[in-house]
Amino acid sequence: MSSLPTAASYLSAVSEADARARAHGATPTSTPALSMSSSVTSSSEDTVLDESGVDVADGLSYPRVPPTSDQVFTTVHSEFGHCANEDYRYTSQHRAGTPYKSIPEQDPPYYILLTTYISYIIVICLGHVRDFVGKRFRRANYKHLLPWNGYAALNSDFDSFYTRRLKLRIDDCFSHPTTGVPGRTIVLLDRYSTDYNKTMVLTGTRTRALNISSYNYLGFAQGKGPCTAAVEAAVEKYGWSSGGTRLEAGNLDLHQQAEALVARFMGTEDALISSMGFATNSNIIPGLVGKGSLVISDELNHASIRFGVRLSGANVRMFKHNDMKSLENLLREVISQGQPKTHRPWKKILLIVEGLYSMEGTMANLPIIMALKKKYKFYVFVDEAHSVGAMGPRGRGVADYFGINPREIDILMGTFTKSFGAAGGYIAGNKEIIDRLRIQGHSFTYAEAMTPPVLTQIIASMASIMGVTMPKTPEKPSSPSLALLRSPEPAPVIPESEVIPGTAPASALPSWMPLVPSMIDGSDGKMRLRRLAFNTRYLNRGLRKLGFITYGTDDSPVVPLLLFHPGKMAVFSRMMRTRAVPIIIVVVAYPATPLVTSRVRFCLSAAHTKEDIDEVLRACDEIGNLLDLKHADGERWPVEEIIERAVELVRMPECP
Amino acid sequence: MSNSSQSLELLFTFLSRSYTTLETNFFKIPGSAVVARYVKSSHQNDPGRTLLEAILIIFAIRTLLQSRTRGDQSAKHFIQFDEKEIDELVDEWTPEPLAQPLSAHEQAELASVPVIVGPNGPKPKLASGKIVTNLASYNFTGLAGNEEIKVAALDTLKRFGLGSCGPPGFYGTQDVHIQLEKDIADFLGTEASIIYSQAFATISSVIPAFCKRGDIIVADRGVNFAIQKGLQISRCTIRWYDHNDMESLEHVLESVEKERQKRKSPLTRRFIVTEGIFDHDGAMSDLPKLVELKKKYKYRLILDETLSFGSVGRTGRGLTELYNVPASEVDMLVGSMATGLSSCGGFCAGSHVVVNHQRINGTSFVFSASMPALLTVAASEGINVLRNSPSILTTLQENVRAVRAILDRVDCIHIPSHPASAVIHLQIRWPTLQVPSAMTATPSSSSKSSRSNPLLVKPRDPPQFNVELEERLLQEVVDEALAQGVLITRAKRLRGQELIEVRPSVRLAVTAALSRKDCEKAAAVVKAAFVKVVGKRR
Ligand SMILES: Cc1ncc(COP(=O)(O)O)c(C=O)c1O
């Protein structure tokens, strides 16, 4: 904090570094050899410049420490932080031979619970008093909540009570408008309210804040970089419209390439793609189960899953979140009882769980689920919206994390909105099932197909994680820039036996898509995965060492920090946002969580640097002291010690 | 007799005595009088509220003792088994496969879908290498491929990247989204609008956001699949009226009102749900009549303009512009940026109250990431283009007329679509079966006065047709047209999942991006294909 470099001093340092690099004989725009480390690629001044119209002397746009001569970065620091230290890397992987367990959920002291209830009661009572008075003296304001002129209220005062009287009080913490890339930092459009949050007025000014809220796990939200270049090429070539549904006339070759690549990535036989993640669940589950089938659903499953299950007409039973004992008891009960009333055996039983729960930070206990599956013969559907890309040593999601063969899982569902910085969702599984879903799910028949720019972002980011097997006769290695300009003709098909396992053969990618060396050798993807894994463990463990109650596992990039009090949500959010280095966070409360466990949720990204996490820890430490949030048992470290010993903390097999 | 009444009396005195002791003791607690008064008055005012508060307190206690799993063991059909029996039952149970393999017919269906290589547009290239005239993809006003839009989209890409990486509530609302919502509202003339990231997922969230159990929806029998799913999720009381028949609608509205008066049921929310241009057959709603009826009977109107927005009206504003009805008369106007503006996503326009309600209650809005900025800007720019060049819509309508002029009077083709609709459905007209469409199919045996039952989605005299045969013939027509260089498609349906069986048809989507000559040529090819395939069977 003490030595914030000014823009000018930073730029001069960059140009010096540039000059030194030139003196060493490498031109800054040339592409170094494929084997070189990912973070050390080429450099130019525009890696720190962007044009979002905010003051750049905000402590976020420039790295604290200017790069040295051999550290050269291609990313824009405000989008994807510069971090060359190879110590700040880790691998997201389950330790073989240990059972999966999440951090035991600790209860806060009773006075916290009590005051939490009291604060809810006070707010509810106040709300009722205001409604009571308001309805008598300020009728006009209540008109839309009461029957009027023979119309029933669209949303009665009763139904909307929670929204009007509780949520509205802290509405400044939600739906904050932003602009620009939702990367490492994000630009907020400043706003204020003159009528107690009923309406918000934009001031016209902007604030850059450290973004620890977007689902940008691998940092692919970028306005500059190879993926963006690929999308740009796609818009030039394909435009931005698909023109209809997949089964009518919106079926592009790009769709087929993307589906084949997703299948290859997931390690399944086939995959299908749908243009919205939510709709992937809500439109496809009805094609999978129906009357006479049973869906067993974790009680905390996402709204889209519930939506889909409800449309399917199948029976639903829920089990306690991630409680495998409860699941097994339920399985024994439902299989022995059969269908309600008739006691006929179920046609099939589908277990739906999420790979990583976005409000809890917990993971599906896949090893036990797979063991139960053998015994009880149910089918498994894993929603990997948050885990795909973000977990596992190769970024392939929970199966990869636990080292389970993906083909043993019947349905792998996921979305592209998160790790891949795109939009939409996929379903991967064996060919028979996927083809059935193409015919019987709602998406292919009725929903608009995914657009070319989105498809390309998926293909490019996925290829970047996988690495690419180039054809046997490579373009002359002496001129690596040729790799950037691939010939427009389709690459010769590479025989399956020559494809490096887990990589994408160049012939599977669109021939016009520009490739860069860091994408081909997979170093870019690897760097992202390893940085995310480090950041994740660092923040999880750092917060616990500070004494906060958090949920989930250490390897979860979603980190919930428990606040309990509804009032503290607003204060926490506002204090973070108004710091010298503003930080934006997400607060969630009832009804998204149980009534008492209001929380803050952090979403980590590969784009964050260690210094960013330090900053978050310092901020949490200060605010946590002020708001009385540190209630966890266990050994505590002072914040500076945590920052000092970060690498050690991350590498410990168990956090003491 | 006297004995029992005596004991009853005893009981009552006991009850009243214990009540008074309870009361006096209660009032000894400081502050209790205030509480009692509050409970009393709020109870008088709204008994439901007392219940709510009681429930809240119970809920609080329950959460404390948290146990969120639901057991079913108390149900009366529960059979007790011991552990060994359960193990045996588990061993015995063999589930069906998760998915049945595709039949040969279904495989052929998947294989017949054309693959477009390169950009989709008026003259796309297919995987076979052939360049075809496209009368199948939605690109009414030719916005896909517009240069101005492309420049804006690429500029947005550089500033925003691609994805929004978050739902609207959590920093996923970008300035471009706010701008598009404003653009749509201004364009249509409503107070506000809200955008969803997939058109198909829009109305199935809009309907349940407003319509709850106990509310009444009066819906057209021919509504599209997305609406059907919205109705299913909403769980409200549904009454059906005959497809696009305003007389039938009025009759149903009348009967619902009568029923309500008879039962003296309380006032509930009531909605009419229908489409502007129907996805099933291209018929067009009579909007002025709809508005008149909804006002007369005090209903709210949910209008799905997925196919009419961006294709009819002087500048493409849809039905409201065509009929000169202010858009504010439609309570929830749902449309699609994917079909209407060649981008992606859907919207719902209406008053501030309607729109803000969805920001919290529209499931697929709240729980899904917002639209990519690039596509949002493409939609905004699309509106600009429509606004500034009304000639596009004129061209489109001319093309529609040109196509209709050729196909309208073909013996073996029946067109149920409205003459102004850019979506044209071509059904097979059989000479022997006189069932060209649902509406005119009135076999002589039934008396005119009898009507369909509003409780059932099935109309009284459903049209008769042979789905399998017609689909097969229409696919032959499609193949034949493709061989002649014209890309058309059958209207794809999930047979067996639609509420009523939809008559098979070939669906054309006319575009302003083709010249009139091209349209005429293509229509002539379609005509020839029909005559060749269907004509010879007549
Ligand atoms: C588990 C789960 N499934 C599905 C989705 C929906 O994905 P999308 O935002 O791409 O619509 C989400 C998004 O939050 C999710 O968390």
Automatic annotation (TrEMBL), chain A:
It comes from the Eukaryota. Residues 210-459, 524-619 form the Aminotransferase class I/classII large domain. It catalyses: L-serine + hexadecanoyl-CoA + H(+) = 3-oxosphinganine + CO2 + CoA. Residues 21-48 are annotated as: Disordered. Its cofactor is pyridoxal 5'-phosphate. Pfam families: Aminotran_1_2. Keywords: Acyltransferase, Endoplasmic reticulum, Lipid metabolism, Membrane, Pyridoxal phosphate, Sphingolipid metabolism, Transferase, Transmembrane, Transmembrane helix. It is found in: Endoplasmic reticulum; Membrane. It is an enzyme of class 2 (transferase). This is serine C-palmitoyltransferase. PANTHER family: CLASS II AMINOTRANSFERASE/8-AMINO-7-OXONONANOATE SYNTHASE, LD36009P. The chain crosses the membrane at residues 110-129. GO terms for cellular component: endoplasmic reticulum; membrane; serine palmitoyltransferase complex. Belongs to the class-II pyridoxal-phosphate-dependent aminotransferase family. GO terms for biological process: ceramide biosynthetic process; sphingosine biosynthetic process. Gene3D superfamilies: Aspartate Aminotransferase, domain 1, Type I PLP-dependent aspartate aminotransferase-like (Major domain). It comes from Dichomitus squalens. One of its GO terms (molecular function) is pyridoxal phosphate binding. Its EC number is 2.3.1.50. Pathway: Sphingolipid metabolism; Lipid metabolism; sphingolipid metabolism.
From TrEMBL, chain B:
Its cofactor is pyridoxal 5'-phosphate. Keywords: Acyltransferase, Lipid metabolism, Pyridoxal phosphate, Sphingolipid metabolism, Transferase. InterPro entries: Aminotransferase_I/II_large, AON_synthase_class-II, PyrdxlP-dep_Trfase, PyrdxlP-dep_Trfase_major, PyrdxlP-dep_Trfase_small. The lineage of its organism: Eukaryota, Fungi, Dikarya, Basidiomycota, Agaricomycotina. Its EC number is 2.3.1.50. Belongs to the class-II pyridoxal-phosphate-dependent aminotransferase family. One of its GO terms (cellular component) is endoplasmic reticulum. This is serine C-palmitoyltransferase. Signal peptide: none annotated. Pathway: Lipid metabolism; sphingolipid metabolism; Sphingolipid metabolism. It comes from the Eukaryota. Transmembrane segments: none annotated. Gene3D superfamilies: Aspartate Aminotransferase, domain 1, Type I PLP-dependent aspartate aminotransferase-like (Major domain). Residues 439-462 are annotated as: Disordered. GO terms for molecular function: pyridoxal phosphate binding; serine C-palmitoyltransferase activity. Residues 131-524 form the Aminotransferase class I/classII large domain. It comes from Dichomitus squalens. Pfam families: Aminotran_1_2 (PF00155). One of its GO terms (biological process) is ceramide biosynthetic process.
